[in-house]
């Protein structure tokens, strides 16, 4: 059973919080873009077997959580600490998918005394000009994904224009198997995406601005055990992003799943949950 509550932060912001309860090891879930914070129901069977307690929150601007324009990826660490304090949780591991991956990494970087380990699934790497590093941030991305993130690189006004002009027919990089998963074992996503946008696109816009901008921390400072999971067939966030991150994190294990896409990679998330349980 999921208990939903509100946690009020300094300044009056409210976060919509989810908690499955129990006294087992805590996994703090970081949702994708655009999702709400509800923990991943398709993983509940594995979590129950491992005795895991999920906690999570909807990031600012999603669902009932107050928007926080200008937030960075690093901003999540303070929000997570406040939620964990309110729930009486001192130590936890973190897990994030897609847009939640960088936020999970931020917690490992900025809350090292509280976070035991981190799993990041299908996450972007921080933006770097390819001329400076040789890593082409956009290489292998589907046109729709590259356009969405590229507009965020240009700032809020450009992102708002891009979103207003979207037709829904753009190629965002899902494989046929990803679309099939959204109708079968991972149809949970089709419920939480509309719920994320019920108050408008503020959360989505702020998420992409944060992902495409300065993250506010360097992933290289993460000294906690880290598992990076990515599908080789992912065209929304190509697996080169996972490879870049793995090359920067001192204690990272990289698992590239042959042929998996942005959604079908979640069929391997139960294995990642087992890895987290072993490192909690």
UniProtKB/TrEMBL annotation:
Note the Pfam families from the entry: Abhydrolase_1
Entry superkingdom = Bacteria
- Domain spans labelled AB hydrolase-1: 25-268
The GO terms describing molecular function are: hydrolase activity
Q: Which UniProt keywords apply?
A: Hydrolase
Q: Know the name of this protein?
A: Alpha/beta hydrolase
């Amino acid at each position: 059973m999921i208990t939903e509550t509100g946690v009020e932060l300094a300044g009056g912001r409210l976060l919509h919080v989810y908690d499955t309860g129990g006294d087992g090891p805590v996994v703090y879930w970081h949702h994708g873009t655009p999702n709400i914070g509800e923990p991943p129901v398709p993983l509940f069977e594995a979590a129950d077997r491992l005795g895991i307690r999920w906690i999570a929150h909807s990031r600012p601007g999603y669902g009932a959580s107050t928007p926080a324009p200008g937030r960075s990826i690093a901003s999540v660490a303070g929000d997570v600490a406040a939620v964990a304090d309110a729930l009486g949780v001192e130590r936890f591991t973190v897990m994030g998918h897609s847009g939640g991956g960088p936020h999970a990494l931020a917690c490992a970087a900025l809350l090292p005394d509280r976070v035991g380990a981190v799993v990041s699934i299908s996450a972007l790497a921080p933006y770097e000009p390819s001329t400076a590093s040789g890593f082409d941030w956009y290489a292998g991305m589907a046109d729709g994904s590259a356009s969405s993130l590229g507009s965020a690189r240009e700032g809020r006004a450009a992102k708002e224009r891009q979103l207003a002009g979207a037709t829904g027919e753009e190629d965002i990089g899902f494989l046929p198997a990803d679309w099939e998963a959204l109708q079968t074992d991972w149809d949970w996503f089709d419920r939480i995406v509309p719920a994320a946008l019920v108050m408008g696109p503020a959360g989505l816009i702020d998420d992409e601005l944060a992902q495409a901008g300065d993250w506010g921390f360097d992933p290289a400072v993460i000294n906690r055990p880290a598992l990076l999971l990515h599908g080789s067939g992912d065209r929304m966030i190509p697996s080169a992003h996972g490879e870049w991150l793995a090359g920067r994190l001192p204690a990272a294990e990289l698992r590239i799943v042959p042929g998996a896409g942005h959604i079908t990679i979640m069929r391997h998330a139960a294995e990642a949950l087992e890895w987290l349980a072993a490192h909690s």
